[in-house]
């Protein structure tokens, strides 16, 4: 039989704590594959967040440390300035980057810090119960918006890539998804390209990944994947938002 998949060596043989159908496990695997294929194992450093991705050090056999909620870009900046030859990335969710960590992410991008942010957007606060996040869409039902998000009371969803695109310090911003095989392939390429931009020192790079959250969306896993295509990408269009050649 032909081997179609082999576990990346830097992905530990540990059981993921993520809910069934969650996209975080796919993103974790893609990062591991990219790091291995780009031969970055001995020079890459991961900054894990609070939230669903907080246990990355249990899964990655690379240097990984925890940051306080929302401070991933600040911690990554400090590491990169001390160890400029290393590849440094923060792994952040929508509440982490687009709410409590807005200042750290925004200003790191504006300064053109040569770090990479892997931004997982599932439109809710996943670990704490499915509350409305900055990226929650209008009319989307969450535990704190039982009648759907209303722009009069809660504002509009934040489009991180588009906001960061106007900053001179950003060099590469792309939005992808992990809800089907073709999308997963594109997501992997985007992560690799972001690391390449960091290695070339072109500026700040970020990959936004639309990820299913069946548990907090109150959907089946198949329905959640379809919902990304049918609803979510209309608010958050996929593709390269900005790239400085």
Q: Explain this structure to me?
A:
The chain has 9 helices and 9 strands. With 245 residues, the protein is α/β, with parallel strands linked by helices. It has a single domain (24-125, 159-243), classed as Rossmann fold, CATH 3.40.50. Strand 5 and strand 6 (131-132) form a beta hairpin. The model has no long low-confidence stretch (mean pLDDT 95).
Could you outline the blueprint of secondary structure elements for this entry?
Blueprint: H1 24-37, E1 44-48, E2 63-66, H2 72-82, E3 87-93, H3 94-100, H4 102-111, E4 116-121, E5 124-125, E6 131-132, H5 151-154, H6 160-165, E7 170-177, H7 181-200, E8 204-210, H8 214-217, H9 221-235, E9 239-243
Parallel strand pairs: 1-2, 1-3, 3-4, 4-8, 7-8
Antiparallel strand pairs: 5-6, 7-9
Helix pairs in contact: 1-7, 3-4
CATH architecture: 3-Layer(aba) Sandwich
Mean pLDDT: 95
Quick one: CATH superfamily? Answer: Thiamin diphosphate (ThDP)-binding fold, Pyr/PP domains
Q: What's the N-to-C terminus distance?
A: 42 Å
Largest sheet: 7 strands, mixed
Binned, the helix content reads 25-40%
Q: What is the H/E string?
A: HEEHEHHEEEHHEHEHHE
Q: Shape, please?
A: globular
Task: Tell me the radius of gyration.
Answer: 17 Å
Structural class category: alpha/beta
Count of extended strands:
9
- Output the CATH class name: Alpha Beta
What is the total number of structural domains?
A: 1
**CATH topology-level name:** Rossmann fold
Tell me the β content. Answer: 15-25%
Report the total helices.
9
Going across the major beta sheet, what is the strand order?
Answer: 2-1-3-4-8-7-9
């Amino acid at each position: 039989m032909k081997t179609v998949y082999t576990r990346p060596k830097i992905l530990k043989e540990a059981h993921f704590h993520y809910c069934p159908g969650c996209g975080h496990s796919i993103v974790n695997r893609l990062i591991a594959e990219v790091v291995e294929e780009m031969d970055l194992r001995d020079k890459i450093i991961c900054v894990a967040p609070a939230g669903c991705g907080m246990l990355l050090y249990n899964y990655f056999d690379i240097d990984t440390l925890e940051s306080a909620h929302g401070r991933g870009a600040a911690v990554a900046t400090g590491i990169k300035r001390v160890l400029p030859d290393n590849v440094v990335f923060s792994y952040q969710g929508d509440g982490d980057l687009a709410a409590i960590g807005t200042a750290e992410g925004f200003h790191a991008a504006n300064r053109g810090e040569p770090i990479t942010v892997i931004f997982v957007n599932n439109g809710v606060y996943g670990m704490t119960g499915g509350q409305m996040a900055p990226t929650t869409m209008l009319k989307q039902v969450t535990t704190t918006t039982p009648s759907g998000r209303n722009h009069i009371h809660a504002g509009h969803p934040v489009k991180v890539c588009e906001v960061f695109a106007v900053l001179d310090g950003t060099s590469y911003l792309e939005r992808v998804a992990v809800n089907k095989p073709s999308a997963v392939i594109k997501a992997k390429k985007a992560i690799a390209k972001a690391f390449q931009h960091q290695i070339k020192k072109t500026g700040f790079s970020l990959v936004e990944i639309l990820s299913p959250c069946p548990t907090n969306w109150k959907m089946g896993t198949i329905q959640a994947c379809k919902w990304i295509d049918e609803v979510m990408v209309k608010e958050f269009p996929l593709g390269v938002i900005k790239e400085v050649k």
